């Protein structure tokens, strides 16, 4: 791998790291936006709950505001329709929630589009990484092949170097051995030549002396062991020396022939070396071999450096792959968390809609209850002849004269119940007077208490709105219990109990 490819790989790795950092920051921003949206939803839910409680409290306070005042201006204050206002407020709240839901859906779609774009970039980078892996694998194969070839070259060079060193050592050893053997041979040859010359001279002298002795010797009693100037033992010794010198000469000839054979072998080896090198100059061959050795060592050093760089790049690549895998895992976990948060928000919206629907159903039920109570109050109003009391008020200019000729609804029900209470009190008082006139005080007291209790029971039954208790006012053909008196305290307690049963217990203003 050359430095340019390594630089390109480093630039690619840096680009991937920067993009991974950008994706991580975008994920954190999306998560922060989800947190902000969740906090905003919680705040809006608190505001909605607070507004709902305020609307309920205002409706209760509005119902209880100046119910019996003679001033028409204050009486018109009770003419507001709390149910209608609550419906309007709920519609506004639903519209607000729908608008927020649309914004959240738009933000969700934007986030999905951004996620798809990020996924496309990740796929593109993954494809590029796969291509880089393929290229890297190809380069590794080429590098391994090159390393194998270099190993063969290095092994061949090492074997050639070993053979050269061996041949050089053998050459030096042979040269030194040949020089020593040649010196010894020349010295022995010179000594042997001198010895032969000496022996030849001695032999010639001994022959001459022997000849003279034979010619001039007249004595017959000489020693037979003495022939000439040498004795027989000396002559044998000289013969032994001559045999020894002959053996030595043969050994020297043999060593000489062996040396000549080695020289011939070396000549053939040098001829092969010259043929391989293409030159007959030993200095040039030695220079070429040293240059090849230096080139092999430089190439070996370069291979080691490339291996180290390859190992470093491999470690960096593995680390980058691990970081990318960690980023992908983190991104998937954050994506699952974001999807879970979105599902929770969607479930919250669905719950809010369901709560709104339940409130609408509850409001309709309350409206039906109010209308049912108004129907029973109207029947009771006409049963106990309360219109005569309103006619008297009209002639006197009373504050409740405006009820004459009107129907009972949620706006004026409390005024009608006040008239019913007053009429019931009047009936009880007239009944007590009639009993007093009859002189049955004990019996009258018991009947008055019984009548008062029965009127209170009918009043509670009319206010609670329960089906069993409201059936006694379904028609004008019912029993005479419809003539019983309703008290305002009982009506107020019944209204409070109704709100508590429906889960709308109001809070008093501070």
From TrEMBL:
Stretches assigned to the ODAD1 central coiled coil region domain: 92-388
Annotated keywords: Coiled coil
InterPro entries per UniProt: ODA-DC/CCD (IPR051876), ODAD1_CC (IPR049258)
Lineage: superkingdom: Eukaryota
UniProt keyword Oxidoreductase, yes or no: no
Residues in coiled coil: 136-177
Name of the featured protein: ODAD1 central coiled coil region domain-containing protein
Source organism per UniProt: Triparma retinervis
